[in-house]
């Protein structure tokens, strides 16, 4: 028997309250002597890390994510003039109490952090929510297939002959910059965890 194939996409999105925030904190130092600039940077970062540990941030939740050394130049009358080095040391801090995120940033800035380059909210056990969305996406695909079949007044097979998971979910990322003001406001909002499937049905 000859079967025709209907292909539909199913989509589902779950809004989830985040319970983890990851913050990238940078120490940027400049100067003419590379060794002095590096030492100054290391001293500041060590002070920042100690302050974070005193706040109760676990050491395993503080990770170095970048370390760069950039020579700086000016151009005077078309001539390249060396004006020193810029050293950037970046750490990512995982904060499991979102309510403390603003305080963590404030303390980091007070201890020498001069750039907050990234704030990202996420949720523990994200895979649990994703599987819920995936299940709902398949139900959505079947409902769409049934709607199309009813419109055409035809029957479809009760089970799909092929299901393809489409990976498109990504965390919501917020950009921010550190200030010296107390109680830096951090508003997480909600994370949308989405799933999409492509399903094929015989009809």
UniProtKB/TrEMBL annotation:
InterPro entries, sorted: 26kDa_periplasmic_antigen, SIMPL/DUF541
Coiled coil: none
A Pfam family recorded for this sequence: SIMPL
Protein name: DUF541 domain-containing protein
């Amino acid at each position: 028997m000859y079967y025709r194939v209907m292909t539909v996409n199913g989509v589902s999105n779950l809004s989830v309250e985040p319970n983890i925030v990851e913050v990238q904190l940078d120490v940027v130092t400049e100067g003419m002597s590379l060794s002095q600039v590096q030492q100054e940077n290391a001293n500041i970062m060590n002070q920042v890390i100690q302050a974070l540990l005193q706040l109760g941030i676990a050491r395993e939740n503080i990770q170095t994510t970048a370390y760069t050394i950039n020579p700086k130049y000016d151009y005077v009358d078309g001539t390249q003039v060396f004006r020193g080095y810029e050293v950037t040391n970046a750490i990512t801090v995982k904060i499991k109490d979102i309510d403390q995120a603003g305080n963590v940033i404030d303390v980091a800035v007070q201890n020498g952090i001069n750039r907050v380059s990234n704030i990202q909210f996420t949720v523990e056990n994200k895979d649990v929510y994703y599987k819920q969305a995936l299940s709902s996406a398949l139900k959505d695909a079947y409902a769409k297939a049934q709607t199309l079949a009813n419109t055409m007044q035809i029957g479809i097979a009760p089970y799909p002959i092929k299901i393809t998971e489409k990976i498109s979910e990504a965390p919501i990322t917020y950009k921010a910059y550190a200030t010296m003001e107390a109680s830096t406001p951090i508003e997480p909002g909600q994370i949308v965890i989405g799933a999409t499937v492509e399903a094929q049905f015989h009809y």
